[in-house]
Amino acid sequence: MFERYQGGESAILVHINFADDNEREALDELELLADSAGVTTCAVVTASRGAPQSKFFIGTGKVEELAALVQMHQADVVIFNHSLSPAQERNLEREVKCRVLDRTGLILDIFAQRARTHEGKLQVELAQLRHLSTRLVRGWTHLERQKGGIGLRGPGETQLETDRRLLRERIKYIQKRLEKVSRQREQGRRARQRNEIPTLSLVGYTNAGKSTLFNRLTQAGVYTADQLFATLDPTLRKIELPDAGPAILADTVGFIRHLPHDLIAAFKATLQETRDADLLLHVVDCADEQMRENIHEVNSVLEQIEADEVPVLMVFNKIDKLESPSPRVEVDDEGRPCAVWVSAQEALGIDGLLEALNRLLAGVLVEHQLTLPPSAARLRSRLYALNGVVNESFGEQGEYVVDIRLQQADWHRLLKQEGEQLERFISD
């Protein structure tokens, strides 16, 4: 039904430098996006403007230059590094005689290529439908005619109106399916909260090395590649920390400048993992010249999804690309880890990262030795469920001698529930 750009074609890239910093994009990022979509770049057109032109976005002289380049290279598509209105896309296509795609459309297409799970495909389709709903008229210029023929004459719904209605119905259907997915994820989160298992969420600019770090910490074998948006579908794995015990690590989609709002809305269920996390690991490519701008963009998206209040540990990745790589852990004024310098690819600084996570999640630990009679089997089972048993042996009368290490909150909860009976078992 929909006219969609397909990867593997030749393209001409268009990049405009604006005076307004809020409108600026990076040319090298457009080239990376095009490469990630499987595009062969024939030429790059650049220009400087104070503001976009209303009809073509670029000036008429640049439109003529673009049309000549399209004809010279027999290009299949022209890709703008900016957001175009539906009217601007139509006007440009009329002049250059080929498909015109804006930055949002390119990102959506990359997402469509990367989605693997059913949930991911639904999320991408929802974002595409919302984006294409305003552009439906372009590929269907004949559809303003009303239906005709025997039994179909007279006033009625135009074909374009029919397709818009079908589009709205499909969007509603996908939204219902995603609401069901969201409820299922919420149940999983509640179960983890009941078991008091902390959740760590990897966030960061796209291609910062989140999935490589995820694989290094969990041995998960998640797909990684040196390209933008290599990861779309969220992956959760359990890791064990020496003192803090088990934790859930979530790998999430990377962020990018001016991430389309339709994508943020469509990926709400996925991004919920980030908002509900106990700790965010903000992964940064420290070898990137635009490191500070990337950090700002990630913080901006975290604010949009209401995750800016979650505690953050900065993880500066790819130190192997620096002149003098030095893995280290930085602490704040209170002595708490606030930044870690690592190389996930070369396994540098990973022990320091695990120790930082341990210190942030473990809190105050309580250590005791308990002597439990056979009748206290239920209590012993609870201690194992809390992952608090460090060592266990048997006494001369067949009792259990258990060395435990628990977070202070867990210990006080046990004392409150078990009362004086638990205190009687303390033998240290």
Please, could you describe this protein's structure?
There is one protein chain. This protein has a 7-stranded mixed beta sheet, sandwiched between helices. It has 3 domains: 92 residues, Rossmann fold; 164 residues, P-loop containing nucleotide triphosphate hydrolases (Rossmann fold, 3-Layer(aba) Sandwich); 63 residues, Alpha-Beta Plaits. Helix 6 runs parallel beside helix 9. The chain has 14 helices and 14 strands. The N and C termini lie far apart (73 Å). The protein has 428 residues and is of the alpha/beta class. The longest helix is centred in the middle third of the chain and has 36 residues. Helix content is 40%, strand content 21%.
Q: Detail the poorly predicted runs.
A: 1-7, 140-149
Assembly state (oligomeric): single chain
CATH superfamily of the largest domain: P-loop containing nucleotide triphosphate hydrolases
What is the overall pLDDT average? 79
Helix content: 40-55%
Overall number of strands: 14
Query: Per DSSP, what share of the residues sits in E-state strands of 2 or more residues?
Result: 15-25%
Rg, rounded, reads 28 Å
Shape: elongated
What is the CA-CA span between the terminal residues? 73 Å
Largest sheet features: 7 strands, mixed
Secondary structure tally, helices: 14
Please report the first level of CATH classification, the CATH class of the largest domain: Alpha Beta
Subcellular location: Cytoplasm
Function: GTPase that associates with the 50S ribosomal subunit and may have a role during protein synthesis or ribosome biogenesis.
Pfam families: GTP-bdg_M, GTP-bdg_N, HflX_C, MMR_HSR1
GO molecular function: GTP binding; GTPase activity; guanosine tetraphosphate binding; metal ion binding; ribosome binding
